[in-house]
Amino acid sequence: MSLAGGTLRRIGLDHNPLRRPIDRVEAWIVVAIVLSFLLIVPATVWLAGRTAYTTGLHNEQVERLHRYRVHAVLLADAGSDTVTDAPVRGAAPTRTGTTTGVRTPARWTSPDGSEHRGVVLADERARAGQWVAVWADTHGDLTDPPQQRVQTWVNSIAAGALAGVGALCLAGVIRLVVRRTLDARRMAQWEEAWWRFEPRWTGRS
User: Which parts of this chain are annotated as the region Disordered (predicted)?
Assistant: First the structure.
């Protein structure tokens, strides 16, 4: 049997006389679902990824315009912060090149010239009077660093992948609904045929 013939037999489009019309209808529906998936999914993945990438580029530009890297002067030795529930944001690479550290009280000047105090992350060896780089918004509040290009790429790839998975799940749901609907129809046809021919076998009128 040729490859084409084997493929047609597996999907139910061969010339098998035992196949019912409803079986062939199901086979054609499956073919339509597969072809639609092959045509629509790549476009959906590309569109979702492209949209996420464009949005990410916009976010990069906006955040770079409204977030500033400032120097926060430590008010105590690193690790001496006693406010355990205060959020720590604005972490930026310190002079040692790390974005991790211990909580330390500090003060900094916002772009508008106002002074602020809060908790920052500092190297555990840092002492009072030293500075660490942090990110602040136009009001001087600590914030996260601007979105980086690598994060934009990650977000766009994730969006495309999620769109592809969603399309695959949708195709699976459609296939399941079609199968159950046609199975119910097949059972009804089988029961109808049984009640038509059973009396001939049993002799009942």
Answer: 85-115
